[in-house]
Design a protein that fits this description.
InterPro entries: S-Me-THD-like_C, S-Me-THD_N_sf
Organism: Brevibacterium marinum
Transmembrane segments: 23-44
Number of helices: 5
Largest sheet: 8 strands, antiparallel
Protein name: DUF917 family protein
CATH architecture of the largest domain: Beta Barrel
Domain S-Me-THD-like C-terminal: 19-189
Strand order of the largest sheet: 8-7-6-5-4-11-9-10
Length: 192
């Protein structure tokens, strides 16, 4: 598989176990500034039309363009303008690292606390003990001062943040949730 960064750096991984490849991909993408295009295997455009999600790249580009056009706005307004949903806001009080890491965001005005679980990406948000968002939804944490989206490793104690979900492109089939939902990451969200 090949990765290309926005500045045209290229990395090629020839083989390895899924676990090792994931660790290498994470390190490479992080060193590329958090973004990279990935080519896993050659495929014809006609095949992609049959098996791919139509307009998924356009959807992502539209969100990115709306975000950049409105970065001067308050973070909560920006979330709404890109079609996202605000799930928590406040100051990061604690960051716990481990196999499944978490951070705690406290909002003194609303007297609420949110726990955001993460590994290499934000996986779930629980506010005052109630699950409000989880993978496969895309969860983002944005620095309220700069409106800059943060990677998991950039969130530190004392930051003022807004936690949101991005608009979805499609609904996942029920059978896929075991592969992309919280349980795929060893999380029990307490849902029946």
């Amino acid at each position: 598989m090949s990765l290309v960064s926005p500045s045209r750096d290229v990395a090629v991984l020839k083989d390895g176990s899924p676990r090792r490849l994931e660790a290498m991909l994470s390190a490479i993408v992080s060193s590329m500034g958090g973004a990279a295009a990935l080519a896993v295997y050659p495929v014809l455009a006609a095949e992609l039309r049959q098996i791919g999600m139509g307009s998924s790249l356009s959807h992502c580009l539209d969100i990115g363009r709306a975000f950049r056009r409105n970065m001067h706005r308050k973070t909560t307004e920006l979330t709404e303008l890109i079609g996202g949903q605000l799930v928590a806001e406040g100051v990061v009080e604690e960051v716990r690292n481990g196999d499944l890491s978490s951070l705690t965001v406290v909002n003194d005005l609303r007297r609420s606390a949110a726990r955001i679980d993460f590994m290499d990406e934000f996986l779930a948000v629980t506010v005052d003990g109630t699950s409000v968002a989880s993978t496969p939804k895309i969860i983002i944490v944005v620095d309220r001062t700069t409106n800059r989206p943060l990677r998991c490793d950039e969130v530190t104690r004392g930051l003022s943040v807004v936690v949101s979900t991005l608009p979805t492109i499609h609904e996942w089939p029920e059978g896929a949730l075991s592969l992309v939902g919280p349980e795929a990451f060893g999380m029990d969200m307490g849902e029946d």
